[in-house]
């Protein structure tokens, strides 16, 4: 199909939007390892999990055989407010790079939460409402997930308590106000409001916090209050399931124009975007229908895929959560304070970890100055100010497009542009002022995290 | 046509995008009064104007007879990166309001500048580039225009010098960083870098600045440097021409589904969005083809349409610019520091002023707490955090929808949602904390501004 017939932005019509989520685990030969009860070290049962999560979400968490799960009507209705998201052909970027590669990005930032997180937030809030709960608790790092959940809870009139990693709380005061505008209560973590928070503050006075620590607080806040459950924006199987809407839309848009990607690139923190984006394509690969190259990109300063261990670990710092088998830097790992690019979680989705262990996908790291360089280059030609997280994917997409320029290959590259950087201007300012530096942890730097791994 | 057949978001396809701008002046019986030379008080000639503006833009500024003007290919290409913008059916808002009214909004915030301003910025940068200029200078208030122009200049490799109203510069440091990310040089106004800035600082030490003052500085910076011209984001005829793309897309989207609006509502600062949105509909009204109700909404604290005088006035505080005939509060008017909602300009587009004087449109004021109340209500159900400016239109759209609820009328309401509020969280915080107050100037408060009007 000739260049001119492919528009800058491919939008699906409403009737082309997915009606079902796709559960990639159903097609995996090696299923992701189950969550373990931290007390008994036995696989968590549905009953045990339902003290923490909504019942329907527990069902989704444990279901590794059903390939397609209906999206409830109420959620489809909400999706229609900000979806389908555009699949954009990066004509201007291609032109600047003078590359024969064809670059597409699935842009998930055109909603107030500024990222893809809303796709799962609305689903989790919906099931909480269905179950007659009063509210939910959660953690947030950069604030995208907390904002998304606040929006979703406000839509369904649910209480929303957000524990926000302290460093982000301080660097991103405006994020807090967006959440408050949607009615959420936001607490910097670690805080004095929970037992685990008080313990962590006593052990590490002056800590800037971590996602793992905020998770512990949010879980405690949920289980110690009547009518509350905990919700999580990444890592979990249920989240990847909801996020499959990204990949399903991407695939439908590509299919519409007969485009077959050679490689699909996504940034990876806990894996929610990457897992969602690649799911249906990975399904084809798992079923032997078609091969694709999948590339996860993570920060050099938080390299769970590339330098972590594939082991059972706690999902949180306070060790109150179930254990998950995943690529991990250890629940005690806290990224360098110098790190400004998000994707700070110590572990990685069990599903993606299994796929990576099975050699079905690759992973690369990127250093933050080169990530912001790519962000700026992209912003100037494509007109979107990307989130630092998303810019990890941009970095590798540009690198791959430049390789094509050398080899002359006309590869089709698809990457996930997960969100916008409007609330990351402190980091951009640092970059603009030439004050940003890189940090690659030494093996010794990583050792304390590995020492925190449970001995099973 | 039944409700179910109209999607939440109506997107035009690329081939349905406008290829020409519409010049509403061509259909006006009473043409807007010409700009006057501040020295001679005679209409500005093309030659005189071309010292300040690009030659092609001067032509557009003065042309009040050509109804359609081709959009250059390069601009259409840029438009395709972020346009067409969606026309959204506010199903969720309608449901919450329990109104029989049908509410649509044209959402111009899905681009990094966060507003419709990019539509004219890219056009003005294009013509500057065509003319072989080195760069352009401008002023910005809330920062939307400055951001838009920075993006446009970066795309065409033009220098961009932005004078930013000091109060916004201080309240919105992140805006400055977005502009810097796009390579612009941003100076808080009034500044010591221009003669007029120094004079204003001497006369009003401690002033928080005004758009009128920043304009003076930007004009001086342009005319005193080789290869620079001044560009403006609102008020001018050329800007309304470029912004007609909003109205043309809106009309095409409505026509596609056979929808005829009863009323069209837009916020009004200098008039760029409102003028652009209503242009093609106003054209129909002017040609006697169809009648619509047009409503301009302005802040109660900066009421140029509703309480200003229709007179020749300076466009800037420093009185270096041509005089325009418009509804004005006087170039000496500076809104109360308490005012957080944007739309701070003392005057109003000459074109809109003439249409208002001829009774072809209405104007209303809104107080800022009620504007933020509408903003929050909208954000919670429609999922978009609106700019305070845009929220003036939301306020009146909600008011009108509630009237329909009382009368049972099924009116079709279209309003312009000009942008997003991500950089307005200081104001939202004030509102969230219950610290926002209203301010309606007394006649005495307005008198100094009127005293600054030139005696012709």
Q: Give the number of helices of chain A.
A: 18
Q: Tally the beta strands of chain A.
A: 15
Biggest sheet overview of chain A: 7 strands, mixed
Instruction: Please give the order of strands in the largest beta sheet of chain A.
Output: 1-4-5-15-10-11-14
**For this entry, what is the oligomeric state of its chains?**
homodimer
The share of residues in helices of chain A is 40-55%
Q: Any low-confidence stretches of chain A, pLDDT <50, length ≥5? A: none
- Strand % of chain A is 15-25%
- Rounded Rg of chain A: 20 Å
Counting helices, strands and paired strands, the structural category of chain A is alpha/beta
Shape of chain A: globular
Mean pLDDT of chain A: 94
Q: Largest inter-chain interface?
A: A-B, 43 and 43 residues
How far apart are the first and last residues' alpha carbons of chain A, in Å? 55 Å
Give a short summary of the structure.
Two copies of one chain form a homodimer. With 456 residues, the first copy, chain A, is an alpha/beta fold.
What does this structure look like?
- The structure is a homodimer.
- Chain A is of the alpha/beta class and about 450 residues long.
- Chain A has 18 helices and 15 strands.
- Chain A has a 7-stranded mixed sheet, with helices on both faces. In chain A, strands 8-7-6-9 form a 4-stranded parallel sheet, with helices on both faces.
- Chain A starts with 8 loop residues before the first strand and ends in a 5-residue tail after the last helix.
- In chain A, about 60% of the residues are buried.
